[in-house]
Amino acid sequence: MKIVWRRGPVTVRDVYEELLAQRKIAYTTVMTMMGILETKKFLKKTQGEKAYVYRPAKPQTVVVSSMVRDFLDRVFNGSAKPLLVHLAENELTPEELEEVRALLKEKKR
Question: Which CATH architecture has domain 2-56?
């Protein structure tokens, strides 16, 4: 999705080539994932000259929110607290923790 948001209309090959420059990945894997994203209504496809062209179907904020909700439901039984605790204890830098504190203070207001 990040590639589609950044580049705009793309083919599976466009996404595959960009991902391949970063890591080894199969073309069919990219094709499958883009198909799944289309089924979930995150992407729209239209027939191009030689291949389907994919575009974002929804704004990035809507898609990210949906993906996070799905992740929370599958991994944490719908609760954000265990994820936040894990991030606070293991992943966030002191600067990031301070930013989170400031966001929480702002949200209380």
Answer: Orthogonal Bundle (1.10)
